[in-house]
């Protein structure tokens, strides 16, 4: 259809619907101010009667592009989501890369008990690809991901693996991180090391535990399940374990704790202080994430630096490659499972004086 | 058109385009997996020839709804955007309320020198309403906002006013905040108070300065422009002013500084420490935002608590009321200019010993 033909038919649509041509343009091309629902319906009906599919609309559907990169996030109760270092960094990395590639970011908050209807986002053309943060290894999640894969919808997991499945993912080498933490503590003269982990629905929890177990065994120190305590990655859950740690110190001579994230480590630090226990003197403590606050605690916390910004950035870059491939613009992109390295950052919370080891 | 009629015409479209009926459904209703661009175009052309506007598509355009709440954010160079307390809190508040109202959040990052083409977001049906964070009082911003208003596109500013314009906005009472900070310092015995402000393109900077000036004058203390220093709200810009403050302490007996945000206050604290100046003893220091880190600095920082989460939440709630009104679902919503109260939280950085005042 030429521009002139399109102009003529729009005029007819306007007459039939009893509205101005400007209104027809607004409804059918989506330009200008909003139009009342009833008016819009009248225009659409007139267009249908007159055999007219506006080309802007046709194009949109032909291209099947939203220009949006979806990010699915858990809506954590009583937590201001973006205030947590983890989500902030990952999202910043995703946002920066999406922007460079000309994509906007659609944030999709998921309530804990809400159905995981991820494939619908693609069916409704809300997103061209999606990154899933905080995925859990539970049946409903596995189902939703299987549906995405079956529909060939491009998606990528961040910091999560599913045993037996090969999904696109970008993760950190958490296993090596925990191993390095154990080795560092052994060098400081520690021998009785506890591990404060998060829930095992996150593969990162399982990986960290595995690294801890393996490093102990390599050093000829038996792995004792009762030295693995459980929190839920919140500060409070770390704080709540202070009494248990104090008891283990008295009864079993525990001399170090590795916490699976900084928030639990900071909570534990506070709890231990209240018990009169000095971290960095009476006991060593290591966190994980190397978030911005660990430099400011007293004492500053040794922590495993995880490149969250880079994880987000890499996930967005690889996923948008896959999106381009799915829409036929690029040659095939192989599925990807990327693991970025982590690094132990030593600070006073785990640096014992020579005198202590004497 | 009945469901049966629609089925028949879809069959014809499929024949004409030389594809399966399932493919026609996928293209025209947006269900299932993506379809190659060329195939989609063939289906669209066949539908046009056969006088067929699929009802799902018609409905979408009739309703003119994206289900997205847009959030326009500055892409700050070299800053991980979400790591900053301000953006994190505001976004969490917006996200929580949007979710409750059934909206998704579309984040739109704006480069500093990028054209501010906000109205296009509505024309392209990417958003139903939009919140603008970090708006600056510069001509291009004023133009873009005027265009939004002219097009009756629902929008809301956060923490920004434009003199001479009445735009929907949610803000904090920064003026009273600075006034309270000055009064608190006067009670502590301080008399020579500096103000470290941010750029005046932000109305919040101007409001804070005005509160400082007014409280001084009410106390009969002259306002001296040379005691107002300028940063850019970054930590580094606060750090850079430490030498200037040290000089003012020696030469003019400066005994307190109010910084217009916590990040500058923390930078200044670090800089002063390096100069051998003890905050809370040699000089009082007050920040603004009451971000999570001010409890952890040494000494902990007195700061003006700004309810950023509530600001975001309120902005989203009022804006979505306006969106409902614009689409004719609700009776008229008046334009809103909301100011939420702030509160001074006292900590050791500004609490002088009695002995000091003796």
Any overview of this molecule?
Two copies of one chain form a homodimer. By secondary structure, the first copy, chain A, is α/β, with parallel strands linked by helices. Chain A has helices spanning 3-17, 21-29, 37-49, 55-63, 85-100, 118-123, 139-150, 174-187, 203-218, 235-239, 242-252, 262-274, 308-326, 354-357; strands spanning 68-74, 104-110, 129-133, 155-158, 169-172, 193-197, 228-230, 256-259, 284-289, 302-305, 337-340, 343-345. Chain A has three domains: 3-63, lambda repressor-like DNA-binding domains (434 Repressor (Amino-terminal Domain), Orthogonal Bundle); 68-167 and 309-340, Response regulator (Rossmann fold); 174-306 and 344-357, 3-Layer(aba) Sandwich (Rossmann fold), CATH 3.40.50.2300. Chain A has 14 helices and twelve strands. In chain A, the strands form two sheets. A six-stranded parallel beta sheet of chain A has the order 2-1-3-4-5-11, covered by helices on one side. In chain A, strands 7-6-8-9-10-12 form a six-stranded mixed beta sheet, with helices on both faces. In chain A, helix 1 (3-17) packs across helix 2 (21-29). The interface between A and B is large, with 68 and 67 residues. Strand 2 of chain A pairs antiparallel with strand 2 of chain B, so a sheet runs across the interface.
Offer a quick outline of the entry:
With 358 residues, chain A is of the alpha/beta class. Helices cover 45% and strands 16% of the residues of chain A.
Short descriptors:
14 helices, homodimer, six-stranded parallel β-sheet, Rossmann fold, alpha/beta, 12 strands, disordered C terminus, 434 Repressor (Amino-terminal Domain), 358 residues, six-stranded mixed β-sheet
């Amino acid at each position: 259809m030429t521009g002139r033909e399109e102009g003529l038919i729009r005029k007819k649509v306007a007459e039939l619907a009893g509205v101005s041509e400007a209104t027809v343009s607004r409804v059918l091309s989506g330009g200008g101010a909003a139009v009342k629902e009833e008016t819009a319906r009248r225009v659409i009906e007139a267009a249908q009667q007159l055999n007219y599919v506006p080309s802007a609309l046709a194009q949109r559907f032909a291209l099947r592009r939203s220009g949006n990169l979806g990010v699915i996030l858990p809506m954590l109760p009583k937590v201001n989501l973006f205030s947590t270092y983890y989500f902030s960094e990952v999202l910043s990395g995703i946002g920066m890369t999406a922007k460079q590639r000309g994509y906007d970011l659609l944030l999709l908050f998921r309530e804990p008990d809400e159905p995981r209807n991820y494939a619908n986002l693609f069916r409704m053309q809300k997103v061209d690809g999606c990154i899933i943060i905080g995925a859990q290894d539970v049946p409903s999640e596995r189902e939703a991901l299987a549906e995405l894969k079956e529909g060939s919808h491009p998606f990528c997991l961040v910091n999560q693996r599913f045993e037996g499945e090969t999904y696109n993912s970008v993760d950190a080498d958490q296993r090596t991180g925990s191993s390095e933490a154990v080795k560092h503590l052994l060098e400081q003269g520690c021998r009785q090391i506890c591990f404060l982990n998060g829930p095992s629905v996150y593969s990162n929890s399982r990986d960290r535990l595995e690294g801890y177990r393996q490093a102990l065994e390599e050093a000829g120190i038996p792995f004792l399940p009762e030295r693995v305590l459980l929190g839920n990655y919140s500060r409070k859950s770390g704080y709540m374990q202070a009494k248990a740690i104090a008891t283990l110190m008295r009864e079993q001579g525990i001399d170090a704790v590795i916490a699976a994230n900084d928030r639990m480590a900071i909570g534990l630090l506070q709890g231990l202080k209240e018990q009169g226990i000095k971290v960095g003197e009476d006991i060593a403590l290591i966190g994980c994430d190397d978030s911005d606050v660990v430099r400011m605690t007293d004492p500053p916390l040794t922590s495993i630096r995880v490149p969250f910004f880079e994880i987000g950035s890499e996930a967005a870059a690889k996923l948008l490659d896959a999106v381009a491939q799915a829409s036929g613009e690029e040659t095939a992109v192989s599925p990807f499972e990327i693991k970025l390295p982590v690094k132990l950052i030593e600070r006073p919370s785990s640096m014992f004086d020579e005198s202590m080891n004497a």
